[in-house]
Amino acid sequence: MARRQVKCIRTKYAAQPHEYITHIGGDWGYNSARVVITEAEAIKDISTNTHSYFVRDKNGDEAEVSVVHHPSGKDYLRTQRDLTKADNLSQLPLCS
Q: How far apart, in whole angstroms, are the C-alpha atoms of residue 35 and residue 58?
């Protein structure tokens, strides 16, 4: 299992990224190339223990990305609680 740092996100509505993350990205491709995958792919990776994902803040602290099972039946990604109240994923820049 590879541990991958998430460095950017894509959103459905950029005004509210915490609710509408559609993709995550990082430099885990060939020769550290930027790769962007769908939220569904990341959820599958985490659920099947294929890969794990984390976010690193400006202080170097890490927060693990986990799958949250919403009562509506839609799973989504969220970082586990750390020292900040903000969701670390929504604080990332948008992937180009």
A: 21
